[in-house]
Amino acid sequence: MAFLVKKYGGTSVGTVERIQHVAQSIKLAREAGDDIVVVVSAMSGETNRLVAMAREVMPAVVDVRELDVLLSTGEQVTIALLSMALKEIGIDARSYTGAQVKMLTDSSHSKARILNIDTDPIMNDINAGRVVVVAGFQGVDEQGDITTLGRGGSDTSAVALAAALKCDECQIFTDVDGVYTTDPRVESRARRLDRITFEEMLEMASLGSKVLQIRAVEFAGKYNVPLRVLSSFKPGEGTLITYDDEENTMEQALVSGIAFNRDEAQITVTGVADQPGTAYAILGPISELNVEVDMIIQNIGADDTTDFTFTVHRDEYQRVIDFLNANNDKLGAKAISGDDRMAKLSIVGVGMRSHAGIASRMFRSLAEAGINMRLISTSEIKISVVIDEKYLELGVRALHEEFELAE
Ligand code: ASP
Ligand code: MG
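Above: inputs. Below: predicted complex with aspartic acid.
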């Protein structure tokens, strides 16, 4: 018997039949004695459809207050239908919008932060033996205005509820059956992980494994909510995301997963003055353009100049190059060059902390595959390299093999 939050994403509630299927799984868990709070997303495609309609009506600047009123309707549909489906099969249930729960947030429409959750009404229902069905992705601010938490925000709603209600586990049901050692579309021998730490999951997520919203993982780590990713279609244990405890460390693999990001671009500014303020002169204005810079590498200057390389998202490449060229009278670079067909490839694992030589294994394996590394960056639990995008698949498979991640 456990107290669980179960979150179902858009594809899991994408049709009426699927909603009925979810109701059946909840019935089984209920009959096994679990207390359950369900969080649902809108039916798949619904939020996009609503956004598109809003853009049609207000093409230039969408009014964010009204947009949130509109977007929150998607989840309101699914909580009602799921509660009906549950009642239809004899399970007492009650639906709540974000405002009814009182999922209190700040007033930053479309990216609101959760401030507080009123757990009393939910606990009253749970104690009365009901299943509580809460709309994900939405909240309410001090003024009573409807807010939303940002795309994919139902994951965060679920984790926040699990934290506030002190649930045993927050289960995220999605269309994949867990977190994999790498993307199975690239390496068919990728394996589902039984466990992974919050830290590793954060690295995997920010490096492009889009199973969970990053914010939800951060939230779960901060409040120590065990998080489990499972498939709503295929039964199984899924992947449990927790803290690195002793039991976990003992069986710890050196590398837990291979993450990658395709849409990278690299920009090099050659022959700038090797003196205080140069990095700031280049990167300051770029951050003012609202461009996110990822890796940053500066060479030791040979004469009195130095070279500077950094990566940005591919979509920003041309804008940054144009900007640097336009301002080169101030920067005084000998050349500004780059390549927008790059990819980032990373190995992630808490096991790296206690083992030397992992980087050299990675580099040897890539060398044997004939892959040139353009940039390298490391942190405690991750090593990333930037390579030509056309070698990405090859690189993923080579590293997957090298670190024995297959079945
Ligand atoms: N329905 C929202 C979205 O599509 C929230 C979610 O699915 O988590 O982004
Ligand atoms: Mg979603």
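The first strand starts at residue 3 and ends at 8.
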